[in-house]
């Protein structure tokens, strides 16, 4: 099994607290798939407002956790670690569905498979599972760019 701990994950993802949403990689196969986890705790900043009386992880953050997992696979498959001039941009979401709430004490298991890679765009099938039940699923698209190129307006 190929695993990554939090320190290794931080070598590939530029995100930091409170937006680093991948705690551990359980397994991966380069250019194919990755499985990771997010341990959801009551200490998450977003639970202060979403919702204090019934804490629920926002759907957009579940999608972000899946996108970060996909970005990890992208960087590792290309054999590069990001520097101050590289970034993976999230460029699309298709068929997103939320099937069950995720709350404190849950472990979100993120399963991401590469569907295709063409012209620098990667498309992934992604699913988040809690206790064997699908919580979220979507098709995600991302691209790797240099931060300098990404700051230029389109067409220039």
From TrEMBL:
GO MF annotation terms: (3R)-hydroxyacyl-[acyl-carrier-protein] dehydratase activity
Q: Which residues form a coiled coil?
A: none
GO BP annotations, alphabetical order = fatty acid biosynthetic process; lipid A biosynthetic process
Q: What is its EC number?
A: 4.2.1.59
Give the keywords, sorted: Cytoplasm, Lipid A biosynthesis, Lipid biosynthesis, Lipid metabolism, Lyase
Family statement drawn from the similarity comment of this UniProt entry: Belongs to the thioester dehydratase family. FabZ subfamily.
This one is known as 3-hydroxyacyl-[acyl-carrier-protein] dehydratase FabZ
Q: What gene is this protein translated from? A: fabZ
